[in-house]
Amino acid sequence: MPLLASALVAACVGGAGVSQASVTPLASASTSCVDSVFSAMSEPERVGQLFMAGIAAAQPDQQRLQVLRTHHVGSVFLAGRSTSGTAATKALTDSLQAMAHSRARLLVSTDQEGGQVQVLSGPGFSTIPNGLTQGSWPTEKLRSEAAVWARQLSSAGVNLNLAPVADVVPAELGRRNEPIGRYGREFGHTAETVTSHSDAFLAGSAESGVLTTLKHFPGLGNVLGNTDTTAGVVDSVTTGDSASIGPFRSGIKAGAPFVMISLATYSKIDPQRQAVFSPTVIKGLLRDELGFKGVVVSDDLGNAVAVKSVPPADRAVNFLSAGGDLVLTVEPNSIPAMAAAVRARMTHDPQFRAQAEESVHRVLTAKQQAGLLSCE
Hints:
Blueprint: H1 6-12, H2 20-39, H3 43-48, E1 51-56, H4 62-70, E2 75-79, H5 85-97, E3 107-110, E4 112-114, E5 117-118, H6 131-135, H7 139-155, E6 160-161, H8 191-207, E7 211-217, E8 234-235, H9 246-253, E9 258-261, E10 265-266, E11 270-274, H10 279-289, E12 295-298, H11 312-321, E13 327-329, H12 335-348, H13 350-369
Parallel strand pairs: 1-2, 1-13, 2-3, 3-6, 6-7, 7-9, 8-10, 9-12
Antiparallel strand pairs: 4-5, 10-11
């Protein structure tokens, strides 16, 4: 399927004048607020913060909405296509927020990349060109346009964009790359172009107060099959030192708050496990080597063919065990089994419990950045 306040970008990108003394009190206040909200939650409510569920952007299904309520799901993904515009979308997101915890509002996300991957359109939304077109623009133009697109999302009640695509598709592979190249989702065919333009997209979105997501780590540019529709997708090229990791490395240094993990297997990084279930990829490469401190979100663990052979309960537990934080499933009906498995594992595995609670803190910290926590 294949998020940053402006102040954070200023501190990370152009923050030579930002002193440690000036940011420490803010960080302390944020930590205090997150701890306070965490303490006010029941365990089922905490577990609910570990899930992001898909809801049809055009016409939500009431039964699936009830699943979200029952399981205290803390984030939603507007899926499919809606042409109803910003006002109607705001009415929808307001109704979804009415289901949220009293002190932690929902992360409301969507795929608003451009081209064929633009969920929300209609009055108030721009028609966004695909990644290849965006990548042909000067970076300042892309930053400016991304800020406009993010303002439109914000006006519609969307606070998290599952973009930009940081995957590098080699020119010789091009459209034969099913998940990205076929649809022109990449900013370009070199790490340099993708890095500069994904950074610009991040910065523009941050200016308008919308959180962003680098995807699909550690990259889908060198595969053939689409993990949404194909099992056994393998990247036999990418290593932890590949140039194609560069856009992720740069975006993380710039303060990107979310990174999405792909469902492919990377034979030169961890040949035994799909990236989404790999502690080598998530804890080792992403956390330890690249220094990412934000929220690790999965690619779709609900309907994607790449994970169909794994029971839903195991998908959630294995992702969280590998170091992930936020389970994305476009199918909310997967959540009862997933949440029950997470709670059961927390009961008898203290290490897993500690890791899951750390993930809840990361999600709440992102919500604090987006102004979604009530600290009173």
